[in-house]
Design brief:
alpha/beta; Aspartate Aminotransferase, domain 2; Aspartate Aminotransferase, domain 1; Ribosomal Protein S5, domain 2; 17 helices; 35% helix; globular; binds pyridoxal-5'-phosphate
């Protein structure tokens, strides 16, 4: 097998476009070769946007080569791995003559890349557990088959393709074997990026879009034989990856720790969610997953899909794909998002026994115009409060009886996470925007957010008429927090939360008592919090959850003469 035999003959001799940036190599003082504006623009710290990007992405490639023990001549970088798919099809297949094999259910872009190049698709089904079968694929291949697409872990099924099957294909198939490893970081498996060194006809694709959290930047890369890479480079758009994206990619490679810990967090959540969903009676199957999503099988997927949509949750209906009847694909979200999802799926099966008509849930009623006139003006218990100081500008928009919808941007990821937990567990709707020196001084930010949120709560509570006033909660998690609240108007904080470390989530631990004190002061709450546990992160999570849940009790409307905004 010679790689040149599977590349389109005409392309092997093609002369690629030669850009100014291609023709000059080395260091120069003054660049007057590419008709750029010498003054230029800067955007988010990227100062060289006036210059064309490096068409060969040398720096990024050499970092990737270093990290993966390969050579830069084995690497192609693309505008997302979707671009690489298209390039690979064009490099190998003759429009109107060639065909390609996919193993459905799988990623939809393979067929699209083939179709846009007038390449026919042949489908070879896997077994009922979605395992690919190299023999069946080889049997289906004919002299015009140029590509076999293997997705591992596969989208939407989440399973890995066994390496033996892929090497069997590589050995016996006279075309290109594309192994798409977009989700490999979520698998307990090193992947197959080493195969191209052994097999000339294997091309392995990876992406920054999934585990590396950069879907919006459009950055993918692939490993292949240098001859193949050369042709892919020759036929791609010269400046296919822009400077902002290159910069983002390089800095992502420097921040491997963050992405690893996020990936671990997602894997952990996947396993928790999977175990939880498996216990729900109406779910017939939760497929094992090596990716950042779960495929579940239910009796009435469209009904569940629509129910979730009404609750503001979008998942992917995959029930029309081969072997996927009844299947929905659920991406693993943040912890509180997964909790909301799990709760709503639970509700679906509790409320709507399959087969019976599900009454569509109405959105929260707006203020009814026929309300009796003695109602004070703030009956919807919402408030928008803005507070500006020299250092910060904070906006807090809260609706006490909401649905747990959070839109939080404090400039600090950990604080965002805490306030999202708060929103979910209090079933408020909360928007927070913080700007100013938020990235420099967490102290100002946290204090000002607490003050603003406290004021917003105070104003949303209005005259507090008809409400419970008291909340008390003692949840039993791995960390326990006991929280009581009295919203009656007196400000006090009792705080007994022993942290083990000086910092939690990058925030000085002492800031949290400060936060709740400022909140109590401005909301007019008496808050009593005590908590214990071994892990500071879980401890502070328990505090925010406990606070949220007891606030939810305290603001519950109990007096029916006041408009009942059902919690
Ligand atoms: C998301 C995904 C990709 C990523 O494509 P990009 O263009 O890199 O964002 C590739 N393959 C599969 C199977 C995917 O699901």
């Amino acid at each position: 097998m010679n790689i040149k035999d599977i590349i389109r003959k005409d392309l092997l001799e093609m002369q690629p476009y030669s850009s100014a940036r291609n023709e000059f190599e080395g260091n120069a003082r003054i660049f007057l070769d590419a008709n750029e504006n010498p003054y230029g623009a800067s955007f988010r710290g990227v100062t060289h946007l006036n210059r064309y990007p490096d068409p060969m992405q040398k720096e990024l490639k050499s970092r990737i080569a270093e990290l993966t023990n390969t050579d830069t001549t084995n690497i192609i970088v693309g505008n997302g791995s979707d671009e690489l798919l298209d390039l690979a099809v064009r490099a190998t297949s003759v429009p109107g003559g060639s065909n390609a094999i996919i193993v459905p259910p799988t990623y939809g872009m393979y067929s699209v890349a083939a179709a846009t190049n007038n390449v026919k698709i042949k489908e070879v089904l896997p077994d009922e557990n979605f395992n690919i079968d190299a023999d069946k694929i080889l049997e289906a291949a004919d002299k015009n088959t140029r590509i076999v697409f293997v997705c591992s872990p596969n989208n939407p099924t989440g399973n890995l393709a066994p390496e033996e099957e892929v090497t069997k294909l590589a050995e016996q198939f006279n075309g290109l074997v594309i192994v798409d490893e977009a989700y490999i970081d979520f698998a307990n498996n090193k992947g197959m990026a080493h195969l191209p060194q052994q097999y000339e006809n294997v091309f392995v694709m990876r992406t920054f879009s999934k585990a590396r959290g950069m879907a919006g930047a459009r950055l993918g890369f692939g490993f292949g034989h240098p001859e193949l890479i050369k042709v892919l480079n020759a036929i791609k758009m010269p400046y296919n990856v822009n400077n902002l994206t290159l910069e983002a990619g390089l800095s992502a490679l420097d921040r491997t720790g963050i992405y690893r810990s996020q990936t671990e967090r997602i894997i952990h959540s996947r396993e928790l969610l999977s175990a939880y969903l498996q216990k729900i009676k109406g779910i017939k199957k939760v497929y094992p997953s090596s990716a950042n999503f779960l495929l579940i099988k239910v009796d009435e997927p469209v009904k569940l899909y629509n129910y979730l949509l009404q609750q503001g949750i979008v998942v992917r209906d995959r029930s029309n794909m081969p072997l996927c009847s009844g299947c929905l694909r659920i991406t693993i979200g943040r912890e509180h998002e997964n909790e909301i999802l799990a709760e709503e799926i639970q509700n679906f099966f509790a409320e709507a026994k399959p087969g019976q008509q599900q009454a569509p849930q109405q959105p929260q009623p707006q203020q009814q115009p026929q309300q009796p006139q003695q109602q004070p003006q703030q009956q919807d218990h919402s408030s928008r409060t803005r507070r500006r100081t020299r250092e910060t500008d904070i906006l807090a928009d809260i609706r006490l009886h909401g649905r747990g919808i959070a839109d939080i941007q404090t400039g600090n990821g950990f604080l965002d996470h805490m306030l999202e937990l708060f929103t979910f567990h209090s079933k408020t709707d909360l928007l927070i925007r913080a700007s100013g020196d938020t990235h420099i001084d967490i102290h100002h930010t946290m204090e000002d957010i607490a003050i603003t949120l406290g004021k917003a709560l105070n104003s949303a509570l209005a005259d507090r008429k008809g409400m419970n006033r008291y909340g008390f909660l003692m949840p039993m998690d791995e960390s326990s927090a006991t929280v009581s609240i009295d919203t009656g108007g007196r400000s006090m904080l009792v705080w007994d939360v022993p942290f083990r470390n000086q910092n939690v989530g990058g925030i000085p631990a002492s800031m949290f008592s400060h936060f709740f004190r400022s909140l109590a002061d401005n909301a007019g709450f008496t808050i009593n919090i005590s908590a214990a546990g071994n892990d500071d992160h879980h401890l502070i999570e328990a505090v925010f959850k406990g606070f949220a849940r007891s606030l939810k009790q305290a603001v519950q409307i109990t007096d029916n003469r006041i408009q009942s905004t059902k919690a």
